[in-house]
Amino acid sequence: MRKTHAHPEHPDTGLSSRRRSLFEHRDNAFAEHIERAAYLGQLSNTGPLVECLNRAVRVARGLDMLFTLARNNAVEQHEDEQADDGNRALCPLSPATMDVLFDLGQTAAELLARDIGVVAAWTEENGLVEDGR
């Protein structure tokens, strides 16, 4: 039987409180009554929501590509360190280049979160049909 070691702050998960809070972040952008109205078909104009979702898909795909690039770069870096002759066809990207790419990914995620907040505020003001509250 495998023995696990739990973290003293969270014996059930083994995660520190800081790391656990990253996974438990549930700050929804849309108010509860807006979410309920969406499920009941009481939103009057869903165009901005669809546009925002399309942007979210593009950001998610970009982040996926970034993570794939980072993983492949780590493999290339490891292989480069293991190579004896230095004659490798592919060279890993520099740490500075990777930092710039991660900054780009972080900025894209932050802008998307802000964009969703704007759409949520717009929906609060303009998105409900009459008597949708």
Q: Per DSSP, what share of the residues sits in E-state strands of 2 or more residues? A: under 5%
Number of helices: 4
What is the string of SSEs from the N terminus onward? HHHH
Number of spatially distinct domains: 1
Output the radius of gyration: 22 Å
**How far is it from the N-terminal to the C-terminal residue, by CA?**
54 Å
Helix content: 55-70%
* Global geometry: rod-shaped
Largest β sheet strand count, sense and barrel closure: none
Structural class comes to mainly alpha
Total strand segments = 0
Low-confidence spans: 1-15
Average pLDDT figure: 81
Keywords:
133 residues; mainly alpha; 4 helices; disordered N terminus
Tell me about this structure.
The protein has 133 residues and is mostly helical. It has one domain. 62% of the residues lie in helices and 0% in strands. It is built from four helices and no strands. The protein has helices at 17-23, 32-39, 47-82, 95-126. Helix 3 runs antiparallel to helix 4 (95-126). The longest helix has 36 residues, at 47-82. It is rod-shaped and about 75 Å long. Mean pLDDT is 81; it is low at 1-15.
In short:
The protein is an all-alpha fold. It has helices at 17-23, 32-39, 47-82, 95-126.
Write the layout of secondary structure elements.
Blueprint: H1 17-23, H2 32-39, H3 47-82, H4 95-126
Helix pairs in contact: 3-4
Region (Disordered): 1-20
Biased composition (Basic and acidic residues): 1-12
